[in-house]
């Protein structure tokens, strides 16, 4: 299974936000430049995370976005499920597969996908940053 870039970028954005001092906010331009991601992609991800109340967004002067929850309350499995359009590895229905009535491979793949998400659900955003916080702050040139 491979996650889309959309989800990869979403996780990267959340890591950055988790490391920001509480009073700071990020901007579309900052994230776009930091990760070399198009503004359009960042905007879509921020909008999606904001709608799900993972982050809070503020418009206008002094605006930006920041985590709406503590990193230990942001579950990685939930984030992946939010950002991925589908976790379907194969599409037997639209391919008009001739062996579909007899094949059990799709069931096995679905079981593997469920196990994948179950493992991710054991971890939070805090788990991603706590062991490498100093390295991340150096990479992002943040000071606390």
Could you name the key traits of this structure?
144 residues, mainly alpha, Arc Repressor Mutant, subunit A, 2 strands, 6% strand, Tscrpt_reg_Rrf2, WH-like_DNA-bd_sf, Transcriptional regulator, WH_DNA-bd_sf, DNA-binding
Q: Layout of SSEs?
A:
Blueprint: H1 5-19, H2 28-35, H3 39-51, E1 55-58, E2 64-67, H4 76-83, H5 105-120, H6 125-130, H7 133-139
Helix pairs in contact: 1-3, 1-4, 2-3, 4-5
What does this entry show, briefly?
This protein has 144 residues and is mostly helical.
Task: Describe the fold and architecture.
- The protein is mainly alpha-helical and 144 residues long.
- It has one domain (5-139): Arc Repressor Mutant, subunit A.
- It has seven helices and two strands.
- It has helices spanning 5-19, 28-35, 39-51, 76-83, 105-120, 125-130, 133-139; strands at residues 55-58, 64-67.
- The chain has a two-stranded antiparallel sheet.
- Strand 1 and strand 2 (64-67) form a beta hairpin.
- Helix 2 packs across helix 3.
- The longest helix has 16 residues, at 105-120.
- It is elongated, with a radius of gyration of 18 Å.
- The N and C termini lie far apart (37 Å).
- 15% of the residues are buried.
- The mean pLDDT is 90.
- It holds the Pfam family Rrf2.
- This is Transcriptional regulator.
- Keywords: DNA-binding.
- It comes from Thalassotalea profundi.
- InterPro entries: Tscrpt_reg_Rrf2, WH-like_DNA-bd_sf, WH_DNA-bd_sf.
